[in-house]
Amino acid sequence: MSIPDLPTIPEVSGQSKGGLKYHILGTVQQTLAVELQSNQIVFSDAGAMSWMTATINMSTKAGGGLGGMLKRAVSGATLFIIDFSAVGAPGQVSFSTDFPGKVLPIELEAGQSVIMHKHAFVCAEKTVGLDVFFTRKLGAGFFGGEGFILQKLTGPGITFAELDGDAVEYHLKAGEVMRVEPGHVAMFEASVAFDIQMIKGIANILAGGEGLFLATLTGPGRIWLHSMTVSTMAHRLMEFMPAKSGG
């Protein structure tokens, strides 16, 4: 009796409007595999690549020149951007998520922007512009959970985002508000207003267990939320860590 073949990893495949083919592999902790033809380039933050075929060329560049590097340094993002292109023959480059979660493809039209936290960006077509995004209010920067500066990606082209846990998407109507624990905010369209507000009520502040601040996202536009946060997971794991001995 023969041994059956092992099942393949579940896969979702697609193609951008620009012709870029991609595959999202796995379920619990996904991997993005991008197919590159000779005229196609994708870029990512430094250190994001997991594996690639021998036909892929890497080219490391400063993120947006000197000014871009300074802004990225303040935001906590990597200072350099890496371009991936196929040389001589088609190739494939892959990016794995840092944490159990989902990879989302976001197709952006010309001039359309999406804003995401600095750990969400995976890679994008070379036609997509990447910049840092300053929140309008200082409070949103200090208490937003992901730092004062977020990343802004502007089309045309496809970009890929990494969300922790399951990705929960809402489409907010004009004036519609969602209040969110800041660490769960993953990404939102540029049309959505983002702010941080203190929780009201002494009892809520002292005993609510939700922290002092909530993010406020006001429509119109789409928002994407993490179902899991790294900080919450780390806090839970600390319960099982051995206590340090004195002395």
Features of this protein?
20 strands; mainly beta; globular; 247 residues
Tell me briefly what this model is.
The chain is 13% helix and 46% strand. It is mainly β.
Please tell me about this protein's structure:
This protein starts with 10 loop residues before the first strand and ends in a 9-residue tail after the last helix. With 247 residues, it is mainly beta. The chain has one domain: Mitochondrial biogenesis AIM24 (Double-stranded beta-helix, 4-Layer Sandwich), CATH 3.60.160.10. The protein contains 4 helices and 20 strands. Strand 1 and strand 2 (21-25) form a beta hairpin. 13% of the residues lie in helices and 46% in strands. The chain has helices at residues 65-75, 138-143, 202-207, 230-238, and strands spanning 11-15, 21-25, 31-36, 41-45, 51-52, 56-62, 80-86, 91-96, 101-108, 113-116, 121-125, 129-134, 149-154, 157-164, 167-172, 177-180, 185-189, 193-198, 213-218, 221-226. A 6-stranded antiparallel beta sheet has the order 6-7-4-11-14-9. The chain has a 6-stranded antiparallel beta sheet with strand order 12-13-10-17-20-15, with helices on one face.
